[in-house]
């Protein structure tokens, strides 16, 4: 481990370099191998007085929490989804204090958080928001499908990478580490979590759906304070009463409202599941988007066909509406630094590594912000906004 990243309700996280068991750094350097940039999370035990249970049951409770911590990590490790980090290993480590500390190592996600992106670049447009909703709903569908719940979904826990978004920070993944109040962030609690009763529905998948609705509203440009017209850090009863009214989504476009509004239903039983929301979003993505369900759809004929030389109106998402690529003329300017714009409208610095022989009009670019097998991507020349991709 190299440096601390933060501390949460269950422990601390550290940046680390990950290697397989029995693989030395020297062997990797000399004989070849793969090192992964990772995040290691350690579960640190709370003091007995911090937990609202009888002192005589503290040791039993702590052991149960440690086992749950590891079980969740092991369950996550079996999920094959491009929208959540990989889990490399989970185990317990003996300490001089006599307690075996549970820990797990996950993939370190490079890029920027959704919170940073919205704060610096402003709201996402309609197609960018649909793309984002698709990725996070796919992540939720994967974890809900194995009986886990995230419980701390917010813009800072959504990381944006070239071409996709990923859900991170699974420290509160199945049951909240209750110490008088839920783990989480004010303004993102579901209404059922703000009453005076702690019950099973407070830890149900519907709570994640509500938090995603808040997150998407912020990504679309709605301020957290304006969403319910109350201070989200204020009294729980006041916030909960405000949530009984419809959310104040301002002048969002009907398609965006159609996705977000059902997620913010006051009653958890009325919120759609992650699977149902994902299918809705896939049907709303622009024709041609590989994540959508309409990439091969042909619109029904309505009246006489338009003249062949009529120019179709531009779509809001330039990546989804790019015209047919023309063959590249010239050689790739290998090693040149360029800036590309992806489907989410994010700009990324990269280095040209060659032409994409399988896709005319595309150039292969290695992203400087990412590592591993996915750091080389194919982009049409129209999405290279700075630099010289061709010699």
From TrEMBL:
Region Disordered, annotated ranges: 288-324
Record InterPro entries: Kinase-like_dom_sf, Prot_kinase_dom, Ser/Thr_kinase_AS, Ser/Thr_Kinases-Pseudokinases
Sorted UniProt keywords: Kinase, Serine/threonine-protein kinase, Transferase
Residue stretches making up the Protein kinase domain: 1-285
Pfam families registered for this protein in UniProt: Pkinase
Membrane-crossing segments per the record: none
Segments of skewed composition (Low complexity): 308-324
GO MF annotations, alphabetized: ATP binding; protein serine/threonine kinase activity
Organism superkingdom: Bacteria
Gene3D superfamilies linked: Transferase(Phosphotransferase) domain 1
Name of the featured protein: Serine/threonine protein kinase
Source organism (scientific name): Microcella frigidaquae
């Amino acid at each position: 481990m190299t440096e601390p990243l933060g501390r949460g309700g269950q422990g601390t996280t550290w940046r680390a370099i990950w290697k397989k068991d029995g693989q030395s750094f020297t062997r990797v350097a000399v004989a070849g191998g793969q090192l992964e940039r990772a995040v290691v999370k350690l579960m640190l035990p709370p003091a007995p007085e911090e937990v609202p249970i009888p002192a005589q049951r503290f040791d039993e409770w702590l052991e149960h929490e440690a086992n749950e911590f590891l079980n969740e990590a092991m369950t996550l490790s079996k999920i094959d989804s491009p929208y959540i980090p990989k889990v490399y290993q989970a185990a317990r480590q003996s300490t001089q204090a006599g307690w075996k500390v549970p820990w797990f190592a996950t993939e370190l996600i490079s890029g920027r958080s959704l919170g940073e992106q919205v704060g610096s670049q402003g709201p996402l447009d309609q197609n960018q928001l649909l793309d984002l909703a698709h990725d996070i709903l796919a992540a939720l569908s994967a974890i809900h499908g194995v009986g886990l719940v995230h419980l701390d979904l917010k813009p800072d826990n959504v990381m944006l990478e070239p071409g996709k978004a990923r859900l991170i920070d699974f420290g509160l993944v199945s049951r909240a580490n209750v110490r008088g109040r839920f783990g989480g962030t004010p303004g993102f609690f579901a209404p059922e979590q703000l009453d005076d009763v702690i019950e099973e529905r407070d830890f149900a998948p519907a709570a994640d759906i509500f938090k995603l609705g808040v997150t998407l509203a912020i990504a679309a440009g709605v301020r957290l304070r304006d969403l319910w017209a109350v201070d989200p850090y204020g009294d729980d009863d006041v916030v909960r009463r405000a949530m009984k009214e419809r959310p104040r989504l301002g002048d969002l476009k009907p398609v965006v409202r159609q996705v977000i509004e059902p997620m913010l239903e006051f009653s958890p039983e009325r919120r759609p599941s992650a699977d149902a929301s994902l299918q809705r979003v896939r049907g709303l993505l622009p024709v041609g988007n590989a994540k959508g369900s309409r990439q091969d759809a042909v619109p029904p004929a309505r009246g006489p066909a338009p003249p062949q030389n009529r120019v179709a109106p531009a779509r809001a998402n330039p990546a989804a509406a790019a015209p047919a690529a023309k063959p590249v003329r010239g050689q790739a300017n290998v090693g040149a630094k360029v800036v590309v714009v992806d489907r989410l409208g994010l700009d990324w610095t990269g280095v040209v590594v060659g032409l994409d022989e399988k896709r005319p009009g595309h150039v292969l670019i290695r992203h400087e912000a990412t590592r591993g097998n996915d750091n080389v991507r194919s982009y049409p020349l129209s999405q290279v906004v700075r630099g010289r991709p061709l010699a």
